[in-house]
Design goal:
The structure is a single chain. The chain has about 180 residues and is of the alpha+beta class. Helix content is about 25%, strand content about 20%. The chain contains five helices and six strands. The protein has a six-stranded antiparallel β-sheet with strand order 2-1-3-4-5-6, with helices on both faces. A hairpin with a 3-residue loop joins strand 3 and strand 4. It is globular, with a radius of gyration of 20 Å.
Length: about 180
């Protein structure tokens, strides 16, 4: 399966592609330096980098003035990719406020469920769960995509990560430029 990468510089009212190769970048510091030195100065060091691995996972990197925010849709898949070093600091960084509420322990006074009672009930199919993500889901909140919306899109479209990238691109305003870069 192939990887697709793009770096899009943010201008005053749009985005434009930058001719940068993420394969040449060893970490986020290198990427921010590369973005800061690229282009004609109209981006002022602001850019969005996208990494997609077909129908498996994606990552967004938002660079703004030398700072980088990262969101990785599937940390296990990204950890095994050629871009793992780029995301190393985010492969185990799932913010607490977004974690699902843990189930409360069963009350000791309540009787334990008897599994034999469930034998006659039809079994529900187990669908693929959303992968474990890492990084900052609020990286596009200033552009109108809140973290909860990004995570909901990821949950709803776990088997089609490109759909999540397209949704975010439409909301933030880089969808057409991203499609042109493909």
């Amino acid at each position: 399966m192939a990887y697709f990468t793009a770096v899009l510089a943010r201008t005053d009212d749009s985005f434009r592609p930058l001719d940068l190769q993420l394969e040449d970048v060893s970490d986020l510091s290198d990427l921010t330096d590369l973005v800061d030195g690229a282009g004609d100065g109209s981006a002022d060091g602001s850019a969005v980098a996208i990494v997609e691995h077909e129908d498996e996972w994606f990552a967004f990197i938002v660079i703004d003035g030398g700072d980088a925010a990262v969101f990785v849709s599937d940390i296990a898949a990204a950890a095994g990719s050629p871009y793992a070093d780029l995301f190393a600091d985010y492969l185990d960084s799932r913010p607490d406020e977004y974690e699902a509420d843990e189930e409360e322990p069963a009350d000791e006074d309540e009787p334990a469920d008897d599994e034999d009672d469930d034998e006659d009930e039809p079994q529900m199919l187990e669908f693929e769960e959303a992968p474990e993500w890492g990084g900052d889901p609020d990286l596009f909140s200033a552009d109108g995509v809140q973290g909860a919306e990004l995570l909901e899109q990821l949950r709803k479209h776990a088997s089609d990560p490109a759909r999540v990238v397209a949704h975010v691109g439409e909301e933030v305003g880089f969808a057409e430029v991203l499609e042109g870069a493909r």
